[in-house]
């Protein structure tokens, strides 16, 4: 460290010859994204001997010995908190967490503390290389407070960028386990219906047909049935806010326990949910698969059904 900066010595290779400078740097420094490196180059942080290189688009010879001064990441504005985490996988670039129901993912008005981000800032202290120059975990996707299960978090700028590309391309494998009111007539199906913030209630998401919505696609299949309920596997082709909850409700089969999109289930189901003290949507992010953005290795993870949903399924006989 020098003057509050980390100095990275970079030796370009002959096969970099003719590449753009920013592309060669991104290949040589795998923890940093190309966009972040562009910003640093333009700021004068890269030197070839005594000469600063400020043009990210300049072509390289492949023989350069460069020195990059990376400022210490600015501290995140959220505070680190020692909150227990169930970490399923962790390496220098990312981690996969099994989130319990009840834990908010990201701080927001009304939930500034006690969130997954606060917990990650504590767990990853000293390991975050900076997302856009800030020492914070890269939240690429979220799951609702009262939904349990798996999500992946980036620890480096480069990992964040690579995961974001996969989510944008809808190439991430995400499968949810749900319990719904009623039994769908078909064994499987697909809901392809655009979602947007409801104009009638800004706290809710709705299926819209006025051009405001983003495409949302959920593939589902029945796993088990009871008299007035069923268990489903829902595979997300897209990942919109409240997607599974809204799509299943649109079929007339809202998630059991859903306080926002659920309609009153049959009396015996209401009594069962009350007896079990089950007061959340019955939704669990059970499987997650993606390509590691740095190593290129395919990773797949599964999360066991949480205890409250196990009790619900047992009581339903599913």
Structural account:
The chain has seven helices and 18 strands. It has 318 residues and is of the alpha+beta class. Strands 6, 7, 9, 10, 11, 12, 15, 16, 17 and 18 form a ten-stranded mixed sheet that branches. The N and C termini lie far apart (59 Å). The relative contact order is 0.13. The mean pLDDT is 90.
Brief summary:
With 318 residues, the protein is of the alpha+beta class.
Record keyword descriptors for this entry.
single chain, 10-stranded mixed β-sheet, alpha+beta, 318 residues
Write the layout of secondary structure elements.
Elements (H helix, E strand, L loop, with lengths): L4 E7 L9 H8 L5 H9 L3 E3 L2 E2 L12 E7 L2 E2 L11 E4 L3 E6 L16 H8 L10 E2 L2 E2 L8 E7 L2 H12 L4 E9 L6 E5 L2 E3 L7 E3 L9 E9 L3 E8 L6 H8 L16 H9 L7 E9 L6 E5 L4 H10 L2
Parallel strand pairs: 5-8, 10-17
Antiparallel strand pairs: 1-4, 2-3, 2-4, 6-7, 7-10, 9-10, 11-16, 11-17, 12-15, 13-14, 15-16, 17-18
What average pLDDT do the residues reach? 90
Order of helices and strands: EHHEEEEEEHEEEHEEEEEEHHEEH
Structural class: alpha+beta
Radius of gyration: 23 Å
Proportion of helical residues: 10-25%
Poorly predicted runs: none
What's the tally of helices?
7
Main sheet specs: 10 strands, mixed
What does the overall shape look like? Answer: elongated
Number of strands: 18
Q: Beta-strand percentage? A: 25-35%
Distance between the termini: 59 Å
């Amino acid at each position: 460290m020098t003057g509050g900066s980390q100095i990275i010595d970079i030796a370009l290779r002959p096969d970099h010859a003719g590449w753009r400078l920013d592309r060669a740097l991104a290949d040589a420094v795998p923890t940093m994204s190309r966009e972040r490196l562009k910003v640093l180059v333009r700021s004068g942080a890269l030197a070839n001997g005594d000469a600063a290189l400020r043009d990210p688009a300049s072509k390289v010879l492949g023989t350069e010995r460069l020195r990059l001064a990376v400022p210490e990441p600015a501290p995140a504005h959220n505070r680190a908190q020692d909150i227990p985490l169930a970490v399923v996988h962790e390496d220098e670039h990312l981690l996969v967490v099994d989130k319990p129901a009840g834990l908010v993912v990201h701080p927001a008005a009304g939930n500034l503390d006690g969130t997954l981000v606060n917990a990650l800032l504590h767990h990853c202290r000293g390991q975050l290389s900076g997302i856009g120059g800030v020492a914070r975990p890269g939240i690429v996707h979220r799951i609702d407070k009262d939904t349990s299960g798996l999500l992946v978090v980036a620890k480096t700028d480069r990992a964040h960028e690579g995961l974001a590309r996969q989510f944008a391309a809808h190439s991430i494998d995400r499968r949810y386990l749900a319990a719904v009111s009623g039994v769908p007539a078909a064994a499987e199906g697909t809901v392809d219906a655009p979602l947007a913030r409801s104009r009638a209630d800004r706290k809710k998401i709705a299926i819209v047909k006025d051009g405001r919505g983003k495409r949302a696609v959920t593939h589902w299949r029945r796993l088990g049935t009871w008299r007035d309920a069923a268990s489903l596997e829902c595979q997300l082709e897209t990942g919109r806010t409240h997607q599974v909850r809204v799509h299943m409700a649109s079929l007339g089969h809202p998630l059991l326990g859903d306080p926002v999109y659920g309609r009153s289930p049959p009396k015996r189901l209401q009594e069962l949910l009350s007896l079990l003290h089950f007061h959340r949507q019955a939704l669990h992010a059970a499987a997650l698969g993606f390509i590691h953005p740095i190593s290129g290795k395919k990773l797949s993870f599964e999360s066991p059904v949480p205890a409250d949903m196990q009790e619900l399924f047992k009581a339903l006989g599913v």
